[in-house]
From TrEMBL:
The gene is mtnA. Its EC number is 5.3.1.23. It comes from Cereibacter johrii. The keyword Chaperone does not apply. This is Methylthioribose-1-phosphate isomerase. Catalyzes the interconversion of methylthioribose-1-phosphate (MTR-1-P) into methylthioribulose-1-phosphate (MTRu-1-P). GO terms for molecular function: isomerase activity. Pathway: Amino-acid biosynthesis; L-methionine biosynthesis via salvage pathway; L-methionine from S-methyl-5-thio-alpha-D-ribose 1-phosphate: step 1/6.
């Protein structure tokens, strides 16, 4: 996508180094930083300079490639897999990308690993862009259908940031929205602020703003009310891990939106790139590890001070503890459909396996 007219990806290689947008400073500052060592790649994922399942995977792939240029030994390959894999527990794209790299690199002689790793990391990024472009094209058909039926504006609610900042480009949940905009369809987006880290308020709102998409930021608790009053035509969210039977793990609060959508007859779709499917698990509630983050993200909020600096402010009393599960699982029964790069299907084992037979078989 573009920033001030210049095409951007969220991660790229330039002048022989890997660069990212350090998302901790958005929307207040566009800070671009290089990642040069394995430790920096690990910190970038763990401390959320980059975030979003597909981008976490792409960053890990580049982290492996950079390490191979430094030390392509078997020991370094194994250790890098472990170090990067330990950074965040829920987004399955991390394991997927590291496995892709290991599968390719392990049989090669060490002297060939650096070049092969860089090639595959670049390919993983390009594949992510193409997957998301296709998700957009399929999702566009849903939006177009609603626009034609209503003969008017399509109101879409989204949660967290499943935008181009969470992927390499296009985004998952936002790709249909960007495609609708390009097709001249009148869309309006309700952006959940998405406490505690406010990826909606900070990142999705910034994306919508930069690309001229009509939008309103809403508090996380407003979605049900808007749905009750017929103000939401469609919900599209992203996912960090979806099971083989269609249970969807996504940013905390997604489950409540799905319940509200079901109660109000609002279609609830999940934009799902295939590397985000975990074919090894079925029951998402029982089997997906949910990241528990620091309570400080709940007791404090981050924002811009009048002097322009980014500050953190305490909002709860001294001594109040906090729980901070970062993700939740929406059972498949609450999901209207999955928008994948191969088309839209039901959140159900047979339908998913029919779209991705080779992956379902080899799991
Ligand atoms: O904790 P984050 O910011 O890495 O969470 C990831 C997300 O942005 C969302 O859960 C998103 O909806 C899925 S990733 C496209």
């Amino acid at each position: 996508m573009k920033i001030n007219g210049t095409p951007f990806r969220s991660i790229w290689c330039e002048a022989g180094e890997v660069r990212i947008i350090d998302q901790r400073w958005l929307p207040h500052e566009l800070r671009i930083v290089p990642l040069r060592t394995r430790a920096e790649f690990a910190a970038a994922i763990r401390d959320m300079w980059v975030r979003g399942a597909p981008l976490i995977g792409a960053t890990a792939a580049w982290g492996m490639a950079v390490q191979m240029a430094d030390d392509p030994s078997d020991a370094a390959l194994a250790e890098t897999w472990e170090v990067l894999h330990a950074t965040r527990p829920t987004a399955i794209n991390l394991r997927w990308a590291l496995n892709e790299m290991r599968r390719l690199l392990a049989p090669l002689p060490p002297s060939e690993r650096a070049a092969a790793a860089a090639r595959r990391a670049a390919e993983i990024c390009d594949e992510d862009v193409e997957i998301n472009r296709r998700i957009g094209a399929h999702g566009l058909t849903l939006i177009r259908e609603i626009a034609e039926r209503k003969r008017g504006r399509v109101n879409i609610l989204t949660h967290c940031n499943a935008g181009w900042l969470a992927t390499v480009d296009w985004g998952t949940a936002t790709s249909p929205i960007y495609h609708a905009l390009e097709a001249g369809i009148d869309v309006h987006v309700f952006v959940d602020e998405t406490r505690p880290r406010n990826q909606g308020a900070l990142l999705t709102a910034w994306e919508m703003n930069s690309h001229g998409v009509s939008h309103d930021l809403i508090v996380d608790n407003a979605g049900g009310h808007l749905m009750q009053h017929g103000e939401v035509d469609l919900v599209i969210v992203g996912t960090d891990r979806t099971t083989a039977q269609g249970d969807v793990c996504n940013k905390i609060g997604t489950y409540l939106k799905a319940l509200a959508a079901k109660a109000n007859g609002v279609p609830f779709y999940v934009a799902l790139p295939s590397p985000t499917i975990d074919w090894t698990v079925r029951d998402g509630v029982a089997e997906i590890p949910i990241e528990e983050r620091s309570g400080a993200e709940v007791t404090h909020v981050q924002g811009k001070a009048p002097d322009g600096s980014v500050i953190s402010v305490q909002i709860s009393p001294d001594g109040t503890g906090a729980r901070n599960p970062a993700f939740d699982v929406t059972p498949a029964a609450l999901v209207t459909g999955l928008i994948t790069e191969r088309g839209i299907c039901a959140a159900e084992a047979g339908a998913m396996a029919a779209l991705f037979p080779e992956a379902a078989r080899s799991a």
